[in-house]
Structures are given as C-alpha cells and as structure tokens.
C-alpha cells in the first residue's frame, strides 16, 4: 500500500465508475482485485438476467465506499480493529464494535454521496 502523510488520503476519491474504482483498488488494495472482479462479474450477470441496473449500482456503491475507507489508512485500520472485536469480543464489545463499524460506514456513504443506513 502507498504511504501518506499522517491522516491524509493515499489517493483522491475516484469517480464512482468501474474503471476508476478498479484503478484505485490496484493502487491502494491490490489484494482486493480478485474479489472486485468476481463481484463485478456477478453484478453484471444479475443485471443482464433481470434487465435491471440495480445490481451494478449496488456493486459500484459498495466499492466506492470500500475505496473511500481504504484510501485512508487510519480509517481502514479502525474498521479492521472493530471487525476483529465484533468477532472475538464479548456481547458488550460486539455491540460497541457494531456501532463503530456502522459509524465508519455511514461516514463513508455520506462522503461518496450515498444515503446512510
């Protein structure tokens, strides 16, 4: 992963297009490219089968949020830490982790212009 000045995004937020998101992921989270490609193929198949763009729109929204978080190493680390706590903590820790994960995702949704939960 590319390094950045403390608290600064690694790259600017790309436009919410398949090509721009793929390029961003290749720069900041190349290990996620196989999942990106697999999920893109699934969304495209679902869109074709249903003659509906909703699966592709959901795909783009999901990956725009992912890129928004991953381009900020501090936010990505916080998310991973809370996900680990949700899996391994007791009930109270899991509730707090769920709340924090929701906050991080809500902030990312708002930042990329998507409605929050």
TrEMBL record:
InterPro entries named in the record: DUF6247
Pfam family membership, one: DUF6247
Protein name: Uncharacterized protein
């Amino acid at each position: 992963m590319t390094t950045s000045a403390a608290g600064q995004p690694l790259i600017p937020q790309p436009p919410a297009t398949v090509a721009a998101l793929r390029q961003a992921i290749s720069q900041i989270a190349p290990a996620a490219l196989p999942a990106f490609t697999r999920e893109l193929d699934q969304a495209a198949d679902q869109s074709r089968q249903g003659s509906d763009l909703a699966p592709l729109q959901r795909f783009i929204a999901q990956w725009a949020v992912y890129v928004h978080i991953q381009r900020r190493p501090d936010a990505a680390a916080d998310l991973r830490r809370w996900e680990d706590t949700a899996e391994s903590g007791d009930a109270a820790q899991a509730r707090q982790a769920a709340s924090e994960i929701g906050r991080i995702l809500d902030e990312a949704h708002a930042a990329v212009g998507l409605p929050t939960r």
